[in-house]
Amino acid sequence: MLAKADAGYDNNEGSVLSCERARKLLSKDCALSDQHLEALIDELMALAAVANDAFMETRKQRSSTASGPLFVPSLVAEPQTAVM
Question: Taking the model in full, what pTM does it have?
Answer without folding.
Answer: 0.55
